[in-house]
């Protein structure tokens, strides 16, 4: 039996934003305190993730916050010619005197001064545990990342700007949250405001499948579900939630998914690249479970 429109309507609603907003404001104030060791550096604090993109559901409680150091940056110049690379190296100075490790240390210290034992340093983020009036927050400490498209003494700013951070194993992870956010907002507008509710519906269906043991937790991260629906043509959205989900999933099942892009349009969506791409076998498993979940619904 297909899922009723009333159930889809329930799943389409955004999760609570009041406590998330309060949590973000408090953590942002802590990070931007003039008492921090990095207060004189050039940096920015902003949201990413489901709450930042208005696709959060009630089952999601984390607030994802990025703090990006801009006075130090990492880069990729693989696309430049030999001459451009030489010019780049001539024009740029030596290694930064204030490194990513310095910044992460100082950010962690600042958070501990605000939240004491509620702070834990993980592989990717510095986590602040939830409390009675605060949601769990993940603070991702990053530096600016620049992927250069060209370089000359006349134009030094032809690059795509993103963020990067390093895991415990010194693995560099590069992503583009600002582009992701701008693109999903544009997609939402281009689909007459059907895109973000459709994302929330798909995420609620995933949560139900996890609760029923149909898929393992973590198989289908929210970020990649946003990317999955981002690739669906705008004309497949609209009419009703049932019509939108059926049309979108059927289109996805029949498409060449190997060519899907992440919503940031800087990576392919389905590749075996940790952190930034969705493993194709995980996507296939999710879609197979989704079809069975739909067929078994009662």
Describe this structure in words.
This protein has 298 residues and is an alpha+beta fold. It is 41% helix and 17% strand. Strands 1, 2, 3, 4, 5, 6 and 7 form a 7-stranded mixed β-sheet that branches. Strand 6 and strand 7 form a beta hairpin. Helix 1 crosses helix 7 and helix 7 crosses helix 8. The longest helix is centred in the last third of the chain and has 17 residues. The model has no long low-confidence stretch (mean pLDDT 94).
Write the layout of secondary structure elements.
Blueprint lengths: L4 H8 L5 H14 L11 E6 H4 L10 E14 L5 H10 L8 H16 L3 E3 L4 E3 L8 E12 L10 E8 L5 E4 L1 H14 L4 H17 L10 H9 L10 H14 L25 H17 L2
Helix pairs in contact: 1-7, 7-8
Tags for this model:
298 residues; alpha+beta; seven-stranded mixed beta sheet; 17% strand; 10 helices; globular; Beta Polymerase, domain 2; 2 domains
Outline of this structure?
It contains 10 helices and 7 strands. The chain is of the alpha+beta class.
What does the main sheet amount to? 7 strands, mixed
Q: Which class do the helix and strand fractions yield?
A: alpha+beta
Q: Ends: how far apart?
A: 6 Å
Helical coverage, percent range: 40-55%
Beta-strand percent range: 15-25%
Using only CA atoms, what is the Rg? 21 Å
Architecture of the largest domain in CATH? Answer: 2-Layer Sandwich
Give the rounded overall mean pLDDT: 94
CATH topology category name of the largest domain: Beta Polymerase, domain 2
The residue ranges in which pLDDT falls below 50 over 5 or more consecutive positions are: none
Q: How many structural domains in the coordinates?
A: 2
């Amino acid at each position: 039996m297909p899922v009723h429109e009333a159930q889809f309507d329930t799943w389409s609603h955004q999760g609570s934003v009041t406590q998330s907003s309060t949590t973000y404001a408090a953590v942002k104030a802590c990070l931007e305190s003039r008492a921090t060791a990095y207060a004189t550096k050039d940096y920015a604090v902003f949201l990413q993730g489901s709450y930042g993109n208005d696709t959060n559901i009630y089952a999601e409680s984390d607030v994802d916050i990025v703090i990006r150091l801009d006075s130090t940056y990492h880069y990729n110049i693989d696309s430049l010619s030999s001459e451009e690379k030489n010019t780049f190296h001539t024009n740029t100075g030596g290694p930064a005197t204030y490194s990513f490790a310095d910044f992460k240390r100082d950010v962690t210290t600042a958070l501990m001064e605000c939240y004491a034992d509620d702070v834990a340093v993980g592989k990717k983020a510095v986590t602040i545990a939830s409390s009675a009036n605060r949601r769990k927050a993940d603070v991702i400490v990053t530096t600016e990342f620049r992927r250069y498209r060209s370089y000359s003494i006349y134009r030094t700013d032809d690059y795509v700007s993103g963020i990067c951070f390093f895991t415990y194993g010194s693995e560099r992870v590069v992503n583009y949250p600002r582009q992701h956010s701008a693109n999903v907002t544009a997609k939402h507008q281009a689909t007459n405001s059907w895109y973000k509710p459709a994302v929330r519906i798909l995420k609620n269906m995933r949560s139900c499948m996890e609760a029923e043991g149909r898929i393992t937790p973590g198989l289908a991260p929210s970020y990649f579900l946003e990317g999955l629906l981002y690739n669906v043509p705008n004309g497949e959205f609209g009419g009703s939630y049932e019509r939108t989900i059926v049309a979108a999933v059927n289109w996805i099942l029949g498409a060449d998914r190997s060519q899907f892009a992440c919503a940031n349009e800087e990576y392919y969506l389905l590749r075996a690249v940790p952190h930034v791409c969705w493993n194709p076998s995980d996507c296939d498993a999710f879609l197979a479970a989704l079809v069975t979940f739909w067929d078994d619904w009662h």
